TrEMBL record:
Gene3D superfamilies: P-loop containing nucleotide triphosphate hydrolases (3.40.50.300). It comes from Shinella zoogloeoides (Crabtreella saccharophila). SUPFAM superfamilies: P-loop containing nucleoside triphosphate hydrolases (SSF52540). It holds the Pfam family VirC1. This is AAA family ATPase.
């Protein structure tokens, strides 16, 4: 039951959208998903409330530094993938969640402020590696990419990040009506009406490719991250 965490120290980078797209796509494929909604805005919790019972998806809304490890431990037998949506911050809860993760996804829209927020998460990952020997896989996912962005521009962004040693997913999250409507209407991309949502087929394909690439990044064996030493390091890193 791998733990996939979405983090950017700046809010508005598209992490909640990316987290929900991944969760609902994996659930549609038959995987059991538990979402830990650690964002104070509670957008995913609100989505869950208006959506009603969703097959293969559970949402936990009350998440704190003290409770997060317990939530994972208590639900691991009924979960294939945990997905954590964090606040746009760098604090003790963010550090703890990252320390418990098998892979950290860092959403970036491509603006300077998002890049600075991403840099803070990358620095935290570096500290966990250097101070505690906790090496956690991580990748940047480009979000809210407009269809007008050229392939050449995309390649330039990826090359810039790669030059700094940052892996970038080949699949960006597009700027799509369906990805916005899911928070207003509830449900999933597969319960939406194609007659009412433009380019729904492209949104579904985007979600499928994104989920497939994320799954390919996960380690074959879950890494254990427990113990007092870990949490002492996490508090210091935050």
């Amino acid at each position: 039951m791998p733990v996939i965490t979405f983090a950017n120290a700046k809010g508005g980078a598209g992490k909640t959208t990316a987290a929900l797209i991944l969760a609902t796509e994996l659930a549609s494929q038959g995987h059991r998903i538990t979402i830990l909604d650690a964002d104070p805005q509670r957008w995913i919790s609100h989505w869950h409330e208006i959506s009603g019972r969703q097959r293969n998806i559970a949402v936990i809304s009350e998440v704190s530094m003290a409770s997060i490890q317990g939530h994972i431990r208590e639900n691991r037998d009924t979960t294939d993938y945990f997905i954590i949506d964090l606040a746009g911050a760098r604090d003790a809860l963010v550090a703890t969640a990252i320390g418990l993760s098998d892979h950290v996804m860092i959403p970036v829209q491509g603006c300077a402020m998002d890049a600075r927020g991403a840099a803070q998460i990358l620095e935290l990952l570096k500290q966990l590696d250097e101070k505690a020997g906790i090496r956690i896989g991580h990748s940047v996912v480009l979000t809210r990419m407009n269809s007008m962005v050229t392939t050449r521009a995309m390649a330039a962004i990826k090359a810039l990040l790669s030059a700094r040693g940052v892996a970038v997913l080949d699949t960006p999250i597009g700027e799509r009506t369906a990805f916005r409507d899911i928070f207003d209407c509830g449900g999933t991309l597969y319960s939406m009406d194609p007659a009412k949502v433009s380019n729904l087929d492209k949104a579904r394909e985007n979600a499928r490719l994104f989920a497939g690439e994320v799954l390919g990044l996960l380690p074959s064996r879950k890494r254990s991250a427990t113990g007092r030493g870990l949490f002492r390091t996490l508090r210091q890193a935050a």
